[in-house]
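Quick one, probably user error.
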């Protein structure tokens, strides 16, 4: 993650916003007197929130753990070729 001063961020606002959105990389903005802050795209923020929701849900984490067990033992659900074709649109 890049780290820049608030003055540099302010002087080049449009460039840094475009960079953040196009590269999906947050930027840490530092201030001399005060807390630093992070600038990130709204899409990236929403994805982070979804990830946090999953990680904080014990039920979802149990489902993921069970899926990993069946995947590793190759005993999980196996879609038919027709289902795979529908998913991949071939």
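Nope, works fine. Designed sequence:
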């Amino acid at each position: 993650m890049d780290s820049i001063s608030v003055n540099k961020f302010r002087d080049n606002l449009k460039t840094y916003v475009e960079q953040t959105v196009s590269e999906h990389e947050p930027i840490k903005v530092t201030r001399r007197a005060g807390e630093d802050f992070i600038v990130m795209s709204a899409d990236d923020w929403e994805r982070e929130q979804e990830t946090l929701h999953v990680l904080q849900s014990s039920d979802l984490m149990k489902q993921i753990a069970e899926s990993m067990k069946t995947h590793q033992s190759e005993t999980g659900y196996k879609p038919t070729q027709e289902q795979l074709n529908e998913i991949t649109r071939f």
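The first helix runs from residue 6 to 11.
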